[in-house]
Amino acid sequence: MIRKRVLARGEVQGVGFRYEARAQARHLGLVGYARNLPDGTVELEIEGPEASVSRMLRWLQTGPRYAIANVLEVSDVAATGESEFQITG
């Protein structure tokens, strides 16, 4: 299991980005969270098998229909063993 922290910048708040990300993560069997940050960024942490995390990272580059994720900053973080993908903040 691996875990990645992702900062999605661009038009990512107010367009269903977190909810679509949660649906995609659940579809891929991933756990973690998505939350809005005060500066307009969406922060995500995604955890699961490497192949599924890679698929999620590719999906995040496009995101949902009305989102424009101009910049994705991705970093490795320690796996936590969570049991679901949540929307916070």
Automatic annotation (TrEMBL):
EC number: 3.6.1.7
Annotated keywords: Hydrolase
Keyword rRNA-binding: no
Name of the molecule in the record: acylphosphatase
Positions of the catalytic residues: R18, N36
Family: Belongs to the acylphosphatase family.
GO molecular function: acylphosphatase activity
UniProt KW Hydrolase keyword: yes
Catalysed reaction equations from the record: an acyl phosphate + H2O = a carboxylate + phosphate + H(+)
Residue ranges occupied by any Acylphosphatase-like domain in the UniProt entry: 3-89
InterPro entries with a match to the protein in the record: Acylphosphatase, Acylphosphatase-like_dom, Acylphosphatase-like_dom_sf, Acylphosphatase_CS
Pfam families: Acylphosphatase
